[in-house]
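Researcher: Sequence of TadE/TadG family type IV pilus assembly protein follows. Predict its structure.
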Amino acid sequence: MRTKNFPSNASMRMQCGAAAVELAFLIIVMMFIIAGIIEFGRVFWYADALTKATRDGARLMSSWPVASLNSSGVGTAQSIAATAANAARVSPNLDVATNVLVECLGPSPGFSVVGCVDGTAPANVRVSITGFNIAIGAMVPFIKVYGGGFGNIPLSPYTTMRYMN
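Model: Prediction complete. Tokens:
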């Protein structure tokens, strides 16, 4: 009669140790994958928030009265875009003077910049975000410990709309 070969206690303990080491490697890899998902999700969230902010500013500017287009329309559109982006909690916060640009444009296909002048209706308006960088790896604590992140990605969304007034 044959007996079955069951592993000994020593053999089972060695297997448990090997499984623990494999689990440790797997957890490290999974943490980096999850960190990448979180960070790239944050980049897409910021890009969407900034695009929506430029859309809000361009929508306001496209229907602003032509009599005060430059004197009050440009500043109000900049303020609306910066407020919308900052309300979406982008980091760093947008500054109206340095990060939001409002331009009056000529007709398509060239869309040349003609300048916003009170009393003169442009063909199109453009609101854009400039000088905004997002640091990849900034929100994941264990990436900061091992080197500080992966660099900056510049985001520069813009929206161009036809002037309707």
